[in-house]
């Protein structure tokens, strides 16, 4: 179906608005705590922007989900987590004890399970326009057709207008044209056991594959310090722990 002249005019206005906000808004940055990653980001992750998180492989889904949850915890404020129902059926439900283990308070979480990509994106746009929200995390199944460049531009504009950070979590998906400020790819690492062989801090291999304001960076091996709520360099060298490193999903 061809777009009407009115639809094209509205799209041009959205794009012009996005470019104007990018030019006029001074970004506020949240340091991640990992020195090399923060240096590559120019001081930290930009707040009030759209960011993408990709799982390197299907087996890295839990780590990518964990990384997105850690970013949300670091950014602060309430979290609106919007999931397509297919994600829960295929990957399992979110596990509140797993969120607690990384230091995220489930009381800050508003979870929405929605039937299809269009509904998820519509809800995400509304949530991202609400200044009272800290972070909107959008989780879609694979490569839905509604998630195109125009959809990401709308999310980016909503984020920049309200100051709400939007995280787009992609599992079993490939990168495509997007208005996201940054794009991250996450792989699992074995954590280093603590004393008495207690489970160690969640460990990740993270690569900044794209950013609009600078070059890519990494990959960096990092771990999450839940007590301080920051990422830090992974010191490695420990024996691999059996089982999933980041138990954020139940029954999946």
UniProtKB/TrEMBL annotation:
SUPFAM superfamilies: P-loop containing nucleoside triphosphate hydrolases (SSF52540)
Protein name, per record: Protein ImuA
Organism: Azorhizobium oxalatiphilum
């Amino acid at each position: 179906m061809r777009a009407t002249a009115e639809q094209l005019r509205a799209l041009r206005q959205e794009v012009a608005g996005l470019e104007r906000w990018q030019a006029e808004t001074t970004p506020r940055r949240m340091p991640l705590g990992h020195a090399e990653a923060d240096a590559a980001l120019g001081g930290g992750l930009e707040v009030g922007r759209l960011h993408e998180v990709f799982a390197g492989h299907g087996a890295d889904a839990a780590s990518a989900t964990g990384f997105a949850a850690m970013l949300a915890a670091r950014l602060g404020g309430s979290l609106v987590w919007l999931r397509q129902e297919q994600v829960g059926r295929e990957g399992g439900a979110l596990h509140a004890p797993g969120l607690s283990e990384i230091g995220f308070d489930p009381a800050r979480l508003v979870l929405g399970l929605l039937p299809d990509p269009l509904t998820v994106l519509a809800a995400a746009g509304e949530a991202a326009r609400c200044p009272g929200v800290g972070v909107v995390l959008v989780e879609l199944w694979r490569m839905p057709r509604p998630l195109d460049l125009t959809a990401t531009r709308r999310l980016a504009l909503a984020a920049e207008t309200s100051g709400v950070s939007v995280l787009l979590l992609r599992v079993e998906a490939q990168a495509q044209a997007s208005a996201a400020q940054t794009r991250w790819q996450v792989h699992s690492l074995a954590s280093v056991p603590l004393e008495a062989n207690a489970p160690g801090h969640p460990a990740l291999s993270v690569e900044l594959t794209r950013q609009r304001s600078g070059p890519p960076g990494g990959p960096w091996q990092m771990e999450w310090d839940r007590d301080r709520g920051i990422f830090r360099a992974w010191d490695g060298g420990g024996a691999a722990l059996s089982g999933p490193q980041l138990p954020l999903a139940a029954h999946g």
